[in-house]
Amino acid sequence: MLQQLDIFLASPLLCSTMAGIIGLLVGSFLNVVIYRxxxxxQRGWRKECRDYLELPAEKPSxxxxxxxxxxxxxxxxxxxxxxxxIPVVSYLxxxxxxxxxxxxISARYPLIEAFTAITSAxxxxxxxxxxxxxxxxxxxxxxxxxxxxDIDHHLLPDSITLPMLWLGLLLNAFGLFTDGxxxxxxxxxxxxxxxxxxxxxxxxxxxxxxxxxDFKLLALFGAWxxxxxxxxIILLSSLVGTIISIAVIIAxxxxxxxxxxxxxxxxxxxxxxxxxxxxxNRMYLNYIGL
Length: 290
What we know:
This protein is an all-alpha fold and 290 residues long. It has helices at residues 2-9, 12-52, 89-93, 108-127, 131-153, 158-172, 180-205, 212-225, 230-252, 263-287.
């Protein structure tokens, strides 16, 4: 039975299709993570502050985690029925409105679901059926969650970043994406590279150019892809960040002095390095004659 399943999934088209379907479901869950995890963290911080200051505990409220309460309309608080929660499809059938109160539902929810499905299908197509695909999917899903949380809150939660960093080191102990030594050196160098930039920028300007979450995210990519990928990721993130920031400022007339989170640019660059990093580095070395 397992051998037949392996043969079935060995087809690039079938493997990609299954990954895309799973990506739709995961994208729906990522919407929950993106919204709820920062709220859970804020509640945890508030409780820790009250405990430290020896203040009375807040009145107990309903459970709030990644499972409870069940999804509901943000306008009328009507619980969303299972058939109304099918990724992308339900949004289209409901014409982007709540079935009860008729209020518009943000288009970001189906867009994240569709984006997760597309990137998942591409990962499966690129890496083929095997363990690299499984773990590259997990990394991709984590990067999507981290990017949108950073966009919303300028925050890269340790509860996602650090486990993924350790997972990268563990995988490369078996040489899945690079060798173990390259992963260890990459994690250290990734953190210290942005740590140094942060302190030099702060020394020169008196301002903070990025957060500690960015250091950990680059360390994550170092752990997964090795120290050799770090120059490419830093260069690509700077290039992507410059292009997107200029486009956003022009399109929205946003004040250029308002900080824009760097995490999504690092995530984009790291994902590109995950998929095409070896080819890009090889092309560059050939170009300069090495």
